Amino acid sequence: SSSSDSKDWSHVYSIGSKGRYIGQFFSPFDVAVTSHGEFVVCDGDNHRLQFFDIASGVFIRSVVGAYGSGLGQFFNPRGVCFDSSSDSLYVADRNNYCVYVLSARDGSFKRSFGSEGNGNGQFNDPCDICVSDDGQFIIVADYNNHRVQVLRNDGSFVTSYGSYGKGEGQFASPSRVCLSNENDILVCDKFNDRIVRIHAIN
């Protein structure tokens, strides 16, 4: 039988509908599972994170839920990942051009880094983020700078890869990133319609 046959799967739950109340979503872009029996949804156009119980799907809390550029506000958060080494959530906030670091336990603010621009450690629409297993390095899909940036967990710049184009070492709006078990970076190169694997020599 096909692996997509319904008898091979058991539907557990579906949650949410379009809207702005708790438990509703407006363009949910990403999801991450924490070590606290919860999952976190990047509710992009509601400018917030929502936490749910992973066993039941029941809403637990919302973080921020306010549009803006002030401390503790989001403006179109697009990517979220969980770092078990520090019990933190890293959030790529696309239109605030920064990364927020929050406590995974209660969503409280820890720190942020980044600003608008094309310099080292600056962003132009950061759309996704992932973290190394040891929690030391952060990888950001820097969408409209057409590159991937590697930063330390304090936000200090390490290196970047990519420029605009179709050739090797080039991207046209990298939209998603993840790390392999070998710590190679896999990139969704959106408008080049391809996946790129980057191997870190050092």
Please provide a written account of the structure.
The chain is mostly beta strands and 202 residues long. Strand 13 and strand 14 form a beta hairpin. The radius of gyration is 17 Å and the shape is globular. The mean pLDDT is 93. The relative contact order is 0.10. The strands form four sheets. It has a four-stranded antiparallel sheet with strand order 1-2-3-4, with no helix packed on it. The chain has a four-stranded antiparallel sheet with strand order 5-6-7-8, with no helix packed on it. A four-stranded antiparallel sheet has the order 9-10-11-12, with no helix packed on it.
Number of helical regions: 0
Q: Which structural class do you get from the secondary structure elements? A: mainly beta
The major pleated sheet works out as:
4 strands, antiparallel
Across the major sheet, the strand order is: 1-2-3-4
Shape: globular
Head-to-tail CA distance between termini: 45 Å
Query: Low-confidence parts, pLDDT < 50 over ≥5 residues?
Result: none
Radius of gyration: 17 Å
Overall mean pLDDT? 93
How big a fraction of the residues is strand? 35-45%
Order of helices and strands: EEEEEEEEEEEEEEE
Q: What's the number of extended β-strand segments?
A: 15
Portion of residues within helices: under 10%
